[in-house]
Amino acid sequence: RHIDPLNAQASYRKINQTLQCNICDKYKKSLVLSDKLNTQDLHLKAVTLTGGNISLK
């Protein structure tokens, strides 16, 4: 998924598996469900930085 950095308004839908998204092609964020009943929105669990320039880490 590509997001224009000037319009970084992303939306996600709930699914029963791990969801990966790329933000500005630099960061990978792992999203998880807020609760097991799927009644709340997704929330950010962790940020993992991989590759790229060391100055971005």
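^ that was protein a. below is b, sequence first then the tokens
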Amino acid sequence: EPWLISLLIFHVILVVVAIASRKHSNFQMILFLLA
């Protein structure tokens, strides 16, 4: 299912961004507000 693949990719990107931004609390706060 294309939508399932897209959803999985979206979650992977979200996790990667969250890990990459652990040192930037402001960016992480914005990320949680958008999620």
